[in-house]
Amino acid sequence: MAAKPHFESVKSFAEVPITDVGVDSGAFLEASDGLVQMFDLFGSGVFGFVQMDLRSNINGVRSRYEGQPDSSGTLEELRPPEGAASSTSTSQKYATACLVRLRLPVKPLQNMQSDHSSELHVLRHHHSFIIRSVVSVAIRAVPRRTDFYHRLSQGAPSDKFDEELGKWLSGLDVIVKRISEFLSSGGYGRV
């Protein structure tokens, strides 16, 4: 029996529970792990810096979640104590705000999904001058749209994959917008 494609075997951001209290931290971390693992499908080490950056941000949340589970059930619950803590760990102190950076892959992927002639090269515009050269190298390693979809879908029917990718991106977009607004309205800064 063949293994399920990546998007069918990992938790989707669309499945992450969101209540009045906030975004479920444990489910979010599980879905985030699937996002990081997605880059392994391309088999190119050039995406290592992307994975490292995402892992760093996610591990800050995971560290807090595992260290203080009673006060870390939602992403929103992480921020007030995180801001008040005298932690010297940058990844832990700014982890919640850094999660908003997950929006970077969302827009290009949504654009690519809605406009079948587009490519992922629009990612270059989302980075500062300092890392733009590294991003340019990574962008050159991004496969063309058809190959990109083929690698991500891993043989799943394209209509099913397109539907699942749409749900996944929509779920992540909702979470990122919610956390961005929470940080801004709570006086924790704009991201």
From TrEMBL:
It comes from the Eukaryota. One of its GO terms (molecular function) is ceramide 1-phosphate transfer activity. One of its GO terms (cellular component) is cytosol. InterPro entries: GLTP_sf, Glycolipid_transfer_prot_dom. Keywords: Transport. Residues 25-153 form the Glycolipid transfer protein domain. The keyword Transport applies. Residues 62-90 are annotated as: Disordered. SUPFAM superfamilies: Glycolipid transfer protein, GLTP. This is Glycolipid transfer protein.
